[in-house]
Specification:
CATH class of the largest domain: Alpha Beta
Helix content: 40-55%
CATH superfamily of the largest domain: Periplasmic binding protein-like II
CATH architecture of the largest domain: 3-Layer(aba) Sandwich
Shape: globular
Structural class: alpha+beta
Number of helices: 17
Order of helices and strands: HHHEEEHHEHHHHEHEEEEHHHHHHH
Oligomer: single chain
């Protein structure tokens, strides 16, 4: 079950309470904190981490070198993102400095929100009961994107991109910098081996970094009788052999204590993604899809307007009000 959906299924009473078993695991404290948090409802655990992905920042080393930048050094703050993007953009032709999917709520919760988190802000309270959109950190991150759009560092097609080019734009080889996910490492290596790229963390305004922890939780449907088999399966999945096997086929390890060992035979860039995963965050709410993923929801509507429109204040205010209304009307918070 997608970890973002675990709170709503837990609140609806559709999952087995696995608290006692979960806490008996000797490595419980090493399991992905974001997954465990979304798997917890009213102090009880209904989901445990199974697969994982993290959001990261990727850059094209070839274009960096051509632009006179250090191809081995990715941006470490917002000013560097914009400055590096400008230099790459100056190469001209069909080369652009930066790309993001401007009309995709899911894409931007995954890659834009970490910029806010890394700067000390958030879009929801810790328990998901309050929308906290209107903050200096959100407005600062918006200003960064708007500035790059205004300077024509971003392809015009980004404005209407609902996610179709979230990965493909960078993979084409003419984008300098793009927020993405750990999945891009395997996809670039296998499908676009000629793209020379680097992976780094999504930074805060003045440094630091954060990441969105994505992936799936392992849950047990209410009334399941074969709990022994379920536990046996998860014991294997959490073993070094299981974590290594999952990593081989695209999932970041969800056990932090053995992550490096599980990834040791894979591309070393996965280690950066795994470190991002360990500090990753996931907004906690029982109405995630209504707030964030819905094409007509407040988050998607807001991000497109604040990045490309004329009424930033109105867009933030409307989104804040609508998000809070959706939260307040939810059957259970």
């Amino acid at each position: 079950l997608d970890l973002i959906s675990t709170p709503s299924f837990s609140a609806a009473g559709q999952l087995e309470d696995i608290t006692d078993w979960a806490k008996s695991l000797p490595y419980f404290a090493s399991l992905s904190p974001a997954h465990v948090k979304t798997g917890t409802y009213k102090g009880r655990i209904y989901g445990l981490p199974f697969s994982a992905d993290s959001s990261v920042l990727i850059w094209n080393k070839k274009l960096f070198k051509q632009a006179g930048l250090d191809p081995e050094k990715g941006p470490t703050n917002w000013a560097e993102i914009e400055a590096d993007a400008e230099k790459v953009n100056a190469l001209g032709g069909d080369i652009k400095g930066f790309y993001f999917s401007g009309n995709c709520g899911g894409c931007n919760i995954f890659t834009f929100t970490p910029l806010i988190w890394a700067s000390g802000g958030d879009i929801l309270s810790e328990d998901g009961s309050k929308a906290t959109l209107d903050s200096p950190q959100l407005r600062g991150a918006i200003d960064l994107y708007r500035s790059m759009v205004k300077k024509d560092l971003v392809p015009s097609g980004a404005q209407t991109d609902t996610g179709a080019n979230f990965f493909a734009a960078f993979a084409a080889g003419n984008i300098g910098i793009s927020p993405s996910g750990a999945f891009a490492i395997g996809a670039l290596n296998t499908q676009y081996p000629n793209v020379d790229y680097g992976v780094t963390f999504l930074p805060g305004k003045d440094g630091g970094w954060s990441s969105f922890a994505g992936g799936d939780n392992f849950v047990v449907t209410k009334g399941t009788k074969k709990l022994a088999v379920v536990k046996e399966f998860l014991d294997f999945a959490y073993s070094l052999e299981g974590q290594t096997l999952l990593a081989k086929y695209g999932s970041l390890p969800v056990r932090g204590d053995i992550a490096k060992e599980a990834l040791k035979d894979l591309d070393p860039r996965y280690q950066i993604a795994a470190e991002a995963m360990a500090k990753g965050r996931t907004p906690y709410t029982v109405v995630f899809n209504d707030l964030i993923n819905s094409a007509n929801g407040p988050w998607t509507q807001m991000v497109n307007e604040v990045f490309f429109g004329d009424d930033v204040d109105g867009a933030i205010s409307n989104a804040q009000e609508t998000m809070q209304s959706i939260i307040d009307q939810a059957p259970q918070k």
